Amino acid sequence: MAPKITVEDLSLSANTIRGLAIDGVQKANSGHPGMPMGMADVAAVLFLRFLEHSPANQGWMDRDRFVLSAGHGSMLLYSLLHLSGYDLPLSELQAFRQSDSLTPGHPEAGHTPGVETTTGPLGQGCGNAVGMALAEQMLAARFNTDGFSPVDHYTYVIAGDGDLMEGLSHEAFSLAGHLGLNKLILFYDSNHITIEGATDLAYSDNVKKRFQGYNWNVLETDAHDYEAIEKVIRRARREKSRPTIIVCHSRIGKGSPNKEGTASSHGEPLGAEEILLTKRNLGLPEDQDFYVPEAVREVFTRRTKSLDRKARKWERELKNYFDANPEKGEQWKTFVDDVLPANLEELVPLFDPDTAMATRSAGGKVIQSMAAVVPQLVGGSADLAPSTKTLINDAGDVGPGSFSGRNLHFGIREHAMAAMMNGMALHGGFRVFGATFFVFLDYCRPSVRLAALMGLPVIYVFTHDSFFVGEDGPTHQPVEQLASLRCIPNVTAIRPADPTETAAAWVAALRNQDGPTALLLTRQNLPVIDRTRYAPAAGVHQGAYVLCQTTEGDVDVLLMASGSEIEVALNAAQELAADLNVRVVSMPSWELFEKQSESYRNATILPSCKIKVAIEAGSAMGWEKYIGEDGKAICLNHFGASAPYKVLSEKFGFSVSNVVSTVRGMIAARDVQ
């Protein structure tokens, strides 16, 4: 039997973490030493006595998840990962915040071994952790049986005052309390300090009452009393119906004789003189930087070896169970590996060219088809399922104590929805979508950006995609959202032109494993393009494709459009066809188009054609790349108005007559030249 981890072991480990943190920040001359110093005791108890993870088996599905929402304290996490045996040598801690190191200023999932999520923007880790805890409960509901429970782990998160001030934490923790996510344990680093000074400058919330109002189990502890910390964590783990917050009364910069408890320890190096005093105070060698005692290495190594054995045992038990239950094993693989049918494109619904339909409604029909063959597909909306058409029929709801359903109800919490989607994707086991009106992208944007940064394959269904919302007026009419979405690297935006393109867009979204996909869908009905007359919608996968050309030979006019404006382009092309050869290009996704070969892009957009017009019910920003200096963009560079959408269409120039007159004017101007 391995020796018990003693209070002395915990104290030495915590002080070692403090030493690593202050040395890393000092060497970089940049960073945040105070938080790691203040929470080192809690973290040492958590990692050495409770947290179950395996550096040798990092993909262990039943590992506990640890989220450092207060990501500015990244040296705390890097020190713990190094000591735990991840492939993060001491040289990487010494290269903190330096080019090409594995220790960036804030933790990045997929970059540093052992980091579960990318944090730093405060509150994000809170939302991610709620998503992880929800995914754990939902996966357990599908695979745990009386005889075998392969999913049984906790999600732990450290958050600070800044996290709790951010509105995202309110949204996410409110929903966590409603759902009763009892395996979510939040350590609140209550040190009463932010960058500007004491928190009472702008913050006097009664956090305990706040979380009681959320239906959380509320506990508290001295953050520097090892036995008290252990006892309170055990109490939290015994809670069966609510998430738990442990209010940790801590001292920022703990151990620094002159900076403990001060704002100056929050976001700047302690300084060489204060570091010497601090090391003397902590009992660390004053003449050694990045010092790790052998006793600390030994205690972490014992813990890690024990957890590695547990992970291997879990793998054996899982294999044995699935060998005896092969159907369940295939189901597990489908969920955990996100396996999609090879013939997914053939399984989408077909649409009648004689029946107009909003692409949001078409998307709803596609969701039913996809849900039937992609069992890991789950999703919901920010209280808008009847409008976004995103309810999975006959699939059950996820709610308090009930996690076997597929429909998520996020409530009116767009930001929490997007952050929780990230957490669910990071946890694994589900392909998740979330829906709201496109204008509310602004409420989701920070989490969308982080999904893109992490390369998470989440799917956003943004409906009511333009001023064609009509009477709801400019507050609900997205104008700048599409251009701003295209500005975020690694986001794939797809704005389909009709129901058939919508089906292809859903397939493209499910096939995209490398980043988020946004589907931009209409409120108003659109004609179903007759694919016996026009090109197949499979061209969506190239991002842009030639939908039609009025005659063969050299192209005189090229009309480009996305979404509902394709109808205008097609009708304008017919009017112009009497004396001009007009090509209409459907361009639902710039991002997919830019991934194509240069030869394909040139063959589609035709650099030689000088009369190019882009038609899109949003900002013109970016279209100049495709229409060139002499092209025209019929777009909307101002806010909308409240009126029936057909009235607005004429008012704003999204009409056949305006497209035709624009083209004729461009030709006349060229003739004059």
Largest beta-sheet details? 6 strands, parallel
Describe the strand arrangement of the main beta sheet, using strand numbers. Answer: 10-9-11-12-14-13
Cα shape:
elongated
Quaternary status of these chains? single chain
Q: Architecture of the largest domain, CATH level 2? A: 3-Layer(aba) Sandwich
Whole-number count of domains: 3
CATH class placement of the largest domain: Alpha Beta
CATH topology of the largest domain: Rossmann fold
Roughly how many Å is the radius of gyration? 28 Å
Structural class from helices and strands?
alpha/beta
Average pLDDT value? 97
Helix content range: 40-55%
State the end-to-end CA separation: 91 Å
Tell me the strand percentage band.
5-15%
- What is the tally of helical segments? 24
What is the number of strand segments? Answer: 20
Mind telling me the CATH superfamily name of the largest domain?
A: Thiamin diphosphate (ThDP)-binding fold, Pyr/PP domains
Identify low-pLDDT runs. none
Structure description:
Helix 7 (167-179) crosses helix 15 (414-427) and helix 19 (565-576) packs across helix 24. The chain has 3 domains: 7-309, Rossmann fold (3-Layer(aba) Sandwich), CATH 3.40.50; 344-526, Rossmann fold, CATH 3.40.50.970; 540-672, Rossmann fold (3-Layer(aba) Sandwich). 42% of the residues lie in helices and 13% in strands. The protein has a 6-stranded parallel sheet, sandwiched between helices. The longest helix has 31 residues, at 294-324. The protein is of the alpha/beta class and 673 residues long.
Features of the shown structure:
20 strands, Rossmann fold, single chain, six-stranded parallel β-sheet, five-stranded parallel β-sheet, about 675 residues, alpha/beta, elongated, 3 domains
